[in-house]
Specification:
3 strands; alpha+beta; 3-stranded antiparallel β-sheet
């Protein structure tokens, strides 16, 4: 089975952030890993998003 790849819009909707925030995180090297397609579009593997979210967790 192929792993789900999310569009930037799908990631932003799931995280409830603006596209500008996503691109700001990316520019600063703080966003989830992305795949750049030959047409220039970005995709985020579901597993990369989940791993990134786990890394963002703060132990309280």
């Amino acid at each position: 089975m192929r792993e789900q790849k999310l569009t930037v819009d799908e990631v932003c909707a799931e995280l409830r952030v603006a596209r500008s925030t996503f691109y700001e995180w990316r520019q600063k090297g703080r966003g989830p890993r992305c795949i750049r397609l030959p047409n220039g579009a970005l995709r985020v593997r579901r597993s990369d998003l989940e791993n990134w979210l786990s890394d963002c967790e703060v132990c309280v």
